[in-house]
Amino acid sequence: MLPPGAQVPPVTTLRRVQVQELWRYPVKSMIGERVGAVDLVGSGIVGDREWACRDLERGGIRGAKKIAGLMRLAAAHTDGPGSPVRITLPDGSHVLTTDDDVDARVAAAVGHPVRLEALRPAEDLDHFRRGAPDSDDLLEELQAIFGREDGEPLPDLSVFPPEVVEFESPPGTYHDAFPLLLVSTAALATLAGALPDSVVDVRRFRPGVVVDAGPGPTGYPEFDWVGRRLRIGDAELEVVTRCPRCVMVTREVGPGVPADRAVLRHIVRELDQDLGVYATVSVPGEVRVGDTVTLLG
User: Cα separation of 126 and 191, whole Å?
Assistant: First the structure.
């Protein structure tokens, strides 16, 4: 029973909002796999970003912010989370993470010396430390990472966890900042309408969860979820911030999605740099395609 004068927190099932797609990315910065259901835990989607590439020239775990060719490769588990990962190379051939020549073949495909490394515990801090920057000029380095042109603003870096200053990702994860990224079909459709000459493909934006609000809504409804709690399937999420976009959305993404800087120019200038929202997992649980999205408060 609620105490006298207490108000019942609002619980709102968003009108026709449901999960349309779920994506899992077994290797950081490679194209992921669409799946029908995922288990969410505190670190995000089980099986997500189990592997990443280490830069053998400048050190550190690196993604496609630095090694653009990674986004032309695709990765999928052979038998669910924890199983060997099959990597599809741009020529259509495959290599497994368990193959002796996997590093050499991935390095040849991306045109850069790299080594695949499995995710390690958070206590192994040296594993997660940033490698050497490409420029000694901090502004130049940040402009390259975020794909900003002269005169364009950089994101407010205070929205990111403080540990990512020293580490490539929060130790114990290969996520850039937060464990889960959501984007709506309305946002993708609105962006496509604004950029008729660009290929606005979900693979550019690397969400874990794509939510569908039906044919009516337009704009970027997920921005209104920041600071609120969501229930999806058996899990509950805290939506913590909008997602500032970086140079990765300009990259070539496999066949049919060419490199295109116009996408990022529009996001920076018209959307205050953001597309999609970051979330943390407050209650673990299973999420399935078709699950309803409910605002808890």
Answer: 39
